[in-house]
Each structure stands twice: as C-alpha cells, then as structure tokens.
User: What shape does this take?
Amino acid sequence: VCGLRSNRENKSPGSSPGLLHLEEFLERLFQWFANNRRDLPWRAEYAPYRVFVAEVMLAQTQVPRVIPYYCRFLERFPDVFALASALREEVLLAWEGLGYYRRAHHLHEAAQRIVEHFQGRIPADFRTLRRLPGIGPYIASAILGIGYNLPVLALDTNVRRVLSRVFGAGEDVDLREIGNLLVSHMPSGKARHLNEALMDFGALVCLSRNPRCSPCPFREFCTFVKDARKERRVRQQRVLLEMCVAVCCAGEEVLLTKSEGKLFPGLWGLPLREQDGEDPRAWIDALGKRYGFLPLALEECGAVAHAYTRYRVRARVLRVSGKRTGMLSEAAWVAFRELFQYPLPSLFRKALALGCPEEYQP
Ligand code: ADE
Assistant: This one.
C-alpha cells in the first residue's frame, strides 16, 4: 500500500514524505481529537439505537441541520420500542423538513423488525444489520464501530478523503484495506474513538475544497499537499427532472394524496405528476375522478425548484379550483390553515406558497 507502513522498526530516519506509520498516525490523530472533539448530542451517551438514528439522519444531511431534528426525535422516540409502536405519520411529522423521507420509512420499519425479531436489541453483527431496511454498509459499520465500540471502521466520504490523502491511496488502493490495518493497530476499545476522530478530522481540517493544511498534524506525509493534481474531483451533474404539481382547492380546503411516485413514496402531499410537458388537463381530470373532485378552473402559478443529492426537480404549479364530489380514503382534504400540522416535503411547501389562493395565504 503506497505510503503506508505498519511497523515502527521499518521507519527510515527522518521519515521520507508520504511514509506514515500507522501507530504514528493514530497517536497524532488521537492527540488532535483530544483537543478538537466536537460535542454532539449523539455523543452524550452511546446506546446503539441513538447511533442508529443519528447515522440515518447524517447519511444525507449536514451535522448542524441534523442536531435539532435529532434532539426532538429522541425526545419523542427515546428508544426502539417507542419508535416501533409509533404511527408512520408521527414518524414522518418528526422528520418533516429533513428530506429524503425514505430514510424515515426505513428507520421505522427497521425498528419494528428489531422489536419483533430481536427483542428490541439492535443486532451487533454486520450481516444481520445489513438485512434490515435502510442499513447499508456505512450505517452498519457505524452502529458496530460507534454504537457497540467493536473494531469496525465506518468509511463515509470524509473518512475516505482523509485516508486517501494522508496515505496516498489512489484508485488502485482499497481504502477498506487501510481501514482494516488501522483498526488492527488501534488500542483495544478505541474503535468509537477512532471513528469519531476521523469523522471530526475530515469535517474540521481535511475539508474537501479548502483543507486547512497549516495546522494539520499529517502535513509532512500528505499526498494532497505534495501533489494537488492527484486528487481530481469529478463533480457529478445533477439530473433535472421536470414535474407538475397540483394545488386542488375546494373552498378553504386543499387535496392531499398519498404519493405513489419514486420521489416521495408513501408520503402524503400534493398530487404530483413526475413528468411534465404535455397538456395537464387529462391528468387533472383523472385526478378528479380518482379522488372525488370536480375540477372547474385551472390556473398556472409558475414553477418551483428543489435540489436533492442526485437530481434537481423543477415543478410547474397548477391551481385547480373545484368541488368535492365524494369522500375517498386515498384522499385527505385539509384546511389550508391546518397544513402546518402535516409532514410535507419542502417541494410541496414551496408549491403551496405559489398555488395557495390569496385569501388562505399564511
Ligand atoms: N457524520 C456522519 N456520522 C457522524 C458522526 N457520528 N459524528 C459526526 N459526524 C458524522
């Protein structure tokens, strides 16, 4: 492995640049961590459930944004039993605004399975964890390494970046190999410490765009400082998805439906057509028939946009005024002024800001 040595005796005098002993790396890293550890709410105590919730939230959302959600979620669902017995709507309400709602569905389902099949104990082995909904290799490793303090390293993007810069790993080097070597060299019982130290180092010093190299304890070894060309970042283009969203109004109420699309599966929200382009009238007519609504007038209100990790959505907003013709279980009619009580994705909140009739604007 380029730039990586595991035995102190092999160390050449003066350490040639790029050659870093694992023990030395761990020593410097832990020293840095002792002075810079972030005080985060999921580090106040280490129940595997708490780590599970935190990592699911953190998988696609930045730390500062997660903190208030995490605290509220833990207050509302303090353990796996509380979460498993909650209604799906309550879980989604606690998740509202955090985005990527599939995570909330999976977390809830995983909690139910953990209660049903494991007496409420979060499994402590990788393969069993991986069979639970929403648990990929990263979250499974974090639960083991941080929650259970077992010798496992969770390789998220930050940690990968730190290791590949410090140890000079290129495309040909498996970071997992470096991770395994590190774990085998760390003092026993330090897995949690190592995982958190690497995460914090990646978040505070070894930043992706403008790394703070001057206070970095690995500066003399780092391949990134030596050879900035080595790390070429490929910026992924987000795919643009054009959609159409309907604000169907009957008096002071608006129609909410349960989404069957891929963007918000199973979530209540405004009717959404996950494509755009054609005349929307046929879609509106079909909506009316399906959900017990007679459309009488249609108005274009402009468009809203929202960006997700892999795609951008642009949705045309249609205000459809009409009358209710029936009561169907798949539809919910909610007074505009009560909308804030429901978990609605940001895209729909933006659409409502445009499509809500003026007299009901908040
Ligand atoms: N990012 C992902 N997991 C994290 C954790 N446990 N602490 C801080 N940042 C993180």
